[in-house]
Design a protein that fits this description.
Length: 82
């Protein structure tokens, strides 16, 4: 989560995070800490956001946003990646 967000931020892109149900609270804390760090350095905290849903359908919806979402880094089982 943090590594993917770091790559996005370092390359001047926004980042949308979505954690699974087992990692939801960790992902939320990482997103909050990243947003705080960005803001402290004068960047918009909105450059990092998190989808609150842990439902896999949310990931499916992101995958459909061609032309809006440029890169998607799926993490999980083979079924998700395919």
């Amino acid at each position: 989560t943090a590594d993917a967000a770091g790559i996005c931020i370092r390359t001047g892109n926004a980042c949308i995070l979505r954690g699974g149900s087992l990692a939801y609270h960790s992902c939320a804390m990482i997103a909050e800490l990243l947003a705080d760090a960005l803001e402290a350095k004068g960047f918009p905290r909105e450059a990092v956001s998190m989808i609150e849903s842990t439902d896999r359908e949310a990931t499916g919806e992101l995958m459909k946003l061609r032309g809006i979402v440029d890169v998607l880094i799926p993490r999980g089982g083979a079924g998700l990646i395919q």
